[in-house]
Design a protein that fits this description.
The chain is mostly helical. It is about 75% helix and about 0% strand. The chain has one domain. The protein has a two-stranded antiparallel ribbon with strand order 1-2. The longest helix is centred in the first third of the chain and has 29 residues.
Length: about 300
């Protein structure tokens, strides 16, 4: 894969995302799409716009279509659509959830449907050799990662930087392995995450909202399993996506186990995530995010090592 082209795609996505997110901030103030502090879980000092996810989704879509056209990969348009269309459906679902606060069962059902759509459009995995079981594992994976990224959107810069690290890792693995489409999608995803972070790093001037976290979570979940290092077989191949997304997996497990052990419903909102635990131990918001991203970088590097020499 042409590394210069991937760099241009990454930087273009970052620039476009930074601009569109800035526009979303203005629009959110005008229409009142703001996340208000509540002195309990939302501790920001002032209302913060929450339309950043819509801007990220629009930026990623445009950059992906342009990159495919410029690179002559229009032959991959159907495959790209099989990833992009369900991701956009997740952005719409998140937008509705932001406004109407859907019940958990409804959110999970639509997320599972998006995973099913991706499967039947071409994103499949072969782990057990039993088609229905492989499908079930894939759907569970996508749903867990979508909600894992959503759960990570609890501290300024945390969800965006997590997607940035995972997407960069996927880009390098795909490029080295000759997977042109996945590397382009990964570069674009990393770029829009960086552009969003320009406005979301503490103190955040905009939030992803559910629209953004669902969109990014779906994309990073699908890209991770589309990586196909030729030298790897099960179970080694499973390590690549797991290491790439170790942080959202670990945070989700930490929160769910802790809540169940305390008799709290796992879908209850609260300040009991890994980032909050670090902050209670004296770290600032920024330092807690840096510590967690250091762990994420180690995981991404481990995924690259497994994919390259496993």
């Amino acid at each position: 894969m042409n590394w210069v082209f991937l760099l241009v795609a990454f930087l273009s996505a970052a620039a476009l995302s930074a601009v569109t997110v800035a526009l979303s901030i203005r629009i959110a103030h005008r229409v009142g799409a703001l996340d208000h502090p509540d002195s309990a879980r939302k501790l920001q000092e002032r209302p913060v716009p929450r339309l950043g996810g819509i801007a990220v989704a629009a930026s990623f879509t445009l950059i992906t279509l342009v990159a495919l056209a410029v690179s002559g990969q229009s032959r991959n348009a159907v495959l790209a659509g099989s990833v992009l269309l369900p991701a956009l459906a997740m952005a719409v679902l998140g937008f509705v959830d932001d406004r109407r606060h859907l019940r958990p069962i409804m959110r999970l059902s639509f997320q599972a449907l998006a995973a099913l759509a991706a499967w039947f459009l071409g994103t499949t995995v072969v782990l057990t050799g039993i088609p229905w079981l492989d499908l079930l594992i894939f759907v569970l994976w996508v749903v867990v990662i979508i909600n894992g990224v959503n759960l990570l959107d609890n501290s300024d810069g945390l969800a965006g930087s997590t997607v940035l690290v995972a997407a960069l890792g996927a880009t390098f693995i795909a490029a080295v392995g000759g997977q042109e489409l996945v590397s382009v999608l990964g570069a674009a995803l990393a770029g829009v995450a960086l552009g969003f972070l320009w406005h979301n790093w503490a103190p955040a001037r905009v939030y992803l909202g559910d629209s953004g976290s669902y969109f990014l979570g779906f994309l990073v979940a699908v890209l991770a399993v589309r990586l196909r290092p030729e030298t790897l077989t099960v179970p080694w191949s499973i390590l690549v996506p797991v290491l790439l997304l170790a942080l959202p997996l670990a945070d989700t497990a930490f929160v769910v186990v802790r809540r169940l052990a305390s008799g709290i419903h796992p879908f209850t909102a609260g300040r009991d995530h890994l980032s909050h635990e670090l902050q209670r131990r004296g770290l600032s918001t920024t330092r807690s995010v840096v510590v967690l991203q250091a762990a994420a970088v180690i995981g991404a590097f481990g995924a690259y090592v497994v994919a390259s020499w496993g």
